[in-house]
Amino acid sequence: MKKILCLVVAVLLAVAVFAGCSGSTEPAGSEDASAQSSASAETVGSESSGAASAAGNYPRGNGDDTLKIGFACMDMSNTFHATVAKYFEQECANRGIECMVLDDKFDGTTATENCQLICDSDCDVYVSVMGFMVGDTLSDICKEAGVLAIGMDQPIPDFPFFGADNVTAGYSAGEALAEAAIEKWGENPTIDLYIGLESLAGAEINDARMHEGMLEGIRSKVEVPDEIYVQCDVTNNDSQVAMRWVEDTINAHPEAEHILIGGFVDDSGQGAEAVIEKLGYQDKALIGTVDGSTLAINNFKNPDTAWVCSAALLPEMYGYYMLETLEPYLKGETDELPDSWNVPPVVITKDDYEQVLTDSIIYDDYQVG
């Protein structure tokens, strides 16, 4: 049986996902953007928006010549979401689109007020991550105002979804982690323990990223029986919580010589890396995550790190990939808007992260790490 370790959660927990005026050029792989958009309903899995409208029946805007988008950042104090907001505003400026950026401050009341303000400000589009907290209310406000809502990384009922492709991101990170295990421990290595540092508060997203994604990616290369899988609920994706889970789990399995650790976000990977270093387990453990943030990059610079890969969600590119599909629809150049489309993730490792990120992020002001 799979061993499930859970913390008692007393309040509603949120899900962090998951967590760029400069010139721009086409990003690597951009010729596949339209194909990814049309196929996204299949690849995104559980992030379905449940849109009631048929594709193409979403609102197109207020009729003005200049497009205006209201972007409600989940929390500007969060590095990932602040980065999305910064480059979303920059991409709008590059395209001549007016952008109104507000901070939801990770608060449902503030998110509701910001949504109403955006709708009252003649915006054509409202973008928010707060669908997991007040999605029904946000949906009702936008319907009443005739404004197109985009649920970013978290769906808003009856409107399209845009964001991370959690299944693909998790699966590619899992494959890379398994390949690192084969390289380190030889062909067909016996994995003694798999620790899943997960975010159970967001069950659907967690299942897509960590089960359909990462665990299946690992199992495509090496065997991971259910009985060696320890699922840990990392409250609020906190690195300190991850540290406690990893240390307690490893201490409960002193016989484990080959340990794989998968993290929902890089914060969990940071906690895991600290424990592996403390225990001197660099030869016994390997870590893979989803996020691709500076936390992963800074650890990749350590030649002795056990953290070998991360699927980069590219917050810098959210604006580009959203607007590549959304702008033509708003201008009437395309007839349909898909019910969901995604930012294509890329896997970075400690050997190639600089080149991969440089090729994937199109903005002149971007610097790796």
Automatic annotation (TrEMBL):
<feature type="signal peptide">
    <location>
        <begin position="1"/>
        <end position="19"/>
    </location>
</feature>
<dbReference type="InterPro" id="IPR025997">
    <property type="entry name" value="SBP_2_dom"/>
</dbReference>
<dbReference type="InterPro" id="IPR028082">
    <property type="entry name" value="Peripla_BP_I"/>
</dbReference>
<feature type="domain" description="Periplasmic binding protein">
    <location>
        <begin position="69"/>
        <end position="333"/>
    </location>
</feature>
<protein>
    <submittedName>
        <fullName>Sugar ABC transporter substrate-binding protein</fullName>
    </submittedName>
</protein>
<dbReference type="Pfam" id="PF13407">
    <property type="entry name" value="Peripla_BP_4"/>
</dbReference>
<feature type="compositionally biased region" description="Low complexity">
    <location>
        <begin position="28"/>
        <end position="56"/>
    </location>
</feature>
<comment type="similarity">
    <text>Belongs to the bacterial solute-binding protein 2 family.</text>
</comment>
<keyword id="KW-0732">Signal</keyword>
<feature type="region of interest" description="Disordered">
    <location>
        <begin position="26"/>
        <end position="57"/>
    </location>
</feature>
